[in-house]
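Table S2 (continued). Query chain:
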Amino acid sequence: MKLKKHGIVLRPRGEIGAIFNCGGIEHEGSITLLPRVVKKGYKKRKRGGFYRYVSEIWLGKSGDGKKFTLSQGPVIKPSEPYDTYGCEDPRITKLHNEYLVTYTALFGPAFSGKNRVGLASTKDFSTFEKHGIIGPNVSDKDVVIFSEEINGKIGVLHRIRQDIQIMFFDDVNQLKENRDSGFWEKYMEDLDNYVVLARKYEWESKKIGAGPPPIKTEEGWLLIYHGVHEKLYRAGAALLDLNDPRKVIARSPQPILEPEKGYERKGDMPNVVFPGGAVPKGDELLVYYGAADKRCALATCKLNDLVDFLLRHKDS
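Corresponding output:
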């Protein structure tokens, strides 16, 4: 099964040099995106990476999910020691009465590997509050929060090294305040026991990471994730058990989204599709993704069709 592509929804304009890897959610009847934005002026290094490359998070709104109005500036930007060099790749979860935004926080120059995961929150998408770093004191990315408590705890997926792990928090306050270093030392010692999804197929053999926050369905938590093989980023999907998301019910053996179009194959990082937002709209699922680290694009499918497809691959 492959998602149906609808093209670019946000592209670089004016002062913006790149706009991509957007989180997405429905808010007050509108589709709201939080795209990652890099302003013009950055330059490519001969040995990889870029000079003067600092990411901010802006805001886009749409009535139909295809034509977006973009904010005049960032809603989350570097301002603290832990994110001085950039705020990247946001994801959005509504939990209780607020929206939680996770993002990759750079405390060193882009592409240096000096990153952890920042947490912010908002109730209206007008004002945002930063809550600092969540997770252990190691390089961490692709953090997504479940939209409901699981057995009384808040579940969070993340990626340390090459696979997807899970961690649990007792409540929202504990999530925002982080845990003590002793807990994280023990967590890191037992990291293999927290792996939810490990690399399995050739198309994801280098690393995998969660895409949008998991979507609750009758058959399980639907997780769309990215996989990397030889610098080629594709997307797959999995179903996780509703009561114990450490149990994988089913998984797509082939990608459901891969770079094929020109806007996905050419950009600051060629051959990349990077899903970050998935919004159920009626019986349809709107999947927003970064294309070649340059633009935001949209792909769709029937939500039930994707779940049925996964159930046919229970033993894959």
